[in-house]
Amino acid sequence: MTLDRPPRVYAEWLPLVDRFAAGEDGVLPILQAGSLDWTHVVAERFTRRLADALATRLQRITTDLQRALDRTTGDVCAVSFALLGARRALIPLRAFATLTAAPDVVRTMLADEVTRFATRTQAAFEASAVRRRLEGGPLLKILRDTPLTAVVEPIGGGGDADGAAGGLPSRRGRRIVG
Amino acid sequence: MTEPRPLLSVPPVPAPPGDAPSLVDHASRPEAPLARELPPWDLVPSDLLLVRRRPVKP
């Protein structure tokens, strides 16, 4: 099903959020333009679905990054490319965390999840590099030169003044606070 | 033969925070009438409720 108009009720949001969870970044502009009557019952369900979608995407990045790292066979340049790929993969997730239909507290929670993932992963990598004796020096340098925690703009996307990432339009959806 | 240790291991992704709904409770309006709290698909038209009347005994 192709929905060419922004979602307005919970039932319209579900398939779009599921598509984003499955890796379809093309739905992000539609989600950004969506609105929702933010009532007590909808709040719990909707927040859970958003958090689950984000966790699914983070899990996918984890799997892809580990697979890429396993293929590097110690080549620090290949490690750098793997890190850059993971950093690019975080861009749509940061954009997802800026959905204007959600209240500030939910957006902050989602953004914190992405930041926490990047921080934990970066710290684990650096600790692992420090433990290694021979290749620890170059590997640690590569890790610190291409940190996962860096917030990067997509190629060809500028982001707007308040820092929305993902190259999404700055159009604001209507948010009704119940 | 043991598997070679990976150069770097990505830590597992923790489960989504379980207290997320409680965060939202503060954002929603607690004094909102019940009818407004229910999403539209949960509302039953009042005329359908007439079907559930208790049958009259002879």
What does this structure look like?
The complex is a heterodimer of chains A (178) and B (58). By secondary structure, chain A is mainly alpha-helical. Chain A is built from seven helices and two strands, in the order H-H-E-H-H-H-H-H-E. Chain A has one domain. In chain A, 60% of the residues lie in helices and 2% in strands. In chain A, strands 1-2 form a two-stranded parallel sheet. By secondary structure, chain B is mainly alpha-helical. Chain B contains three helices and no strands. Mean pLDDT of chain B is 56; it is low at 21-51. The chains are: A mainly alpha (178), B mainly alpha (58).
Task: Write a concise keyword list for the protein shown above.
heterodimer; A: 178 residues; mainly alpha; two-stranded parallel sheet; elongated; B: 58 residues; 3 helices
Q: Which strand-content bin applies to the residues of chain A?
A: under 5%
3D shape of chain A: elongated
Order of helices and strands of chain B: HHH
How far is it from the N-terminal to the C-terminal residue of chain A, by CA?
A: 29 Å
| Helix content estimate of chain B | 10-25%
How many beta-strand elements of chain A? 2
How many domains comprise the coordinates of chain A? 1
In percent, how helical is the residue content of chain A? Answer: 55-70%
Biggest sheet record of chain A: 2 strands, parallel
The parts of chain B where pLDDT drops under 50 for at least 5 residues are 21-51
Helical stretch count of chain B?
3
The coarse overall form of chain B would be: rod-shaped
Q: Distance N terminus to C terminus of chain B?
A: 84 Å
Beta-strand residue fraction of chain B: under 5%
Brief summary:
The complex is a heterodimer of chains A (178) and B (58). Chain A has 178 residues and is mainly α. In chain A, 60% of the residues lie in helices and 2% in strands.
